[in-house]
Amino acid sequence: MQVEPMTRDDFEERWKAETQTRRRQSTELEHISAYYGLEHRCGIRVALGGRVRHNGREGVIVDTAGQRLKVMFHGDAEPSICHVTWAMEYETVTGWVAATPVPDPFAANPATA
Q1: Model-level pTM?
Q2: CB 66: neighbour CB atoms within 10 A?
């Protein structure tokens, strides 16, 4: 089977698409980091390539999907979309850490109720 050589136009289109994907991922990861504050609150840094566990299944973060993560779980053919904190654990240098939801600022405070 003969493979057609890549033209300059093909290369430029591919480069442009990959650049847009990286930019989207970077923006979405920055939002996730700022909104959930997992690094500050739990010592978790959410990043592409990071190892995670969701309901006990291990996988790797391969992409973002808005405020969610695309995780490729071991043995799966396609990545799954997961919420950043819902039943998620992240591997850190000190071991596995469970992500906790963002505190609800409007929830009743037991101390003042």
Answers
A1: 0.81
A2: 10
Quick one: average pLDDT of 15-36? 95
For residue 107, being part of any structural domain is answered with no
Q: Mapping DSSP to helix (H, G, I), strand (E, B) and coil, where does residue 38 land? A: helix
Residue 76 and residue 44: Cα distance in Å, rounded?
25
Which pLDDT does position 5 carry in this prediction? 80
CA atoms of 99 and 82, how far apart (whole Å): 12
**pLDDT single digits (tens) 53-75:** 999 999 999 999 999 999 999 99
Task: Classify residue 109: in a domain, yes or no.
Answer: no
Asked if the structure places residue 61 within a domain, the reply is yes
CB atoms within 10 A of CB 69: 26
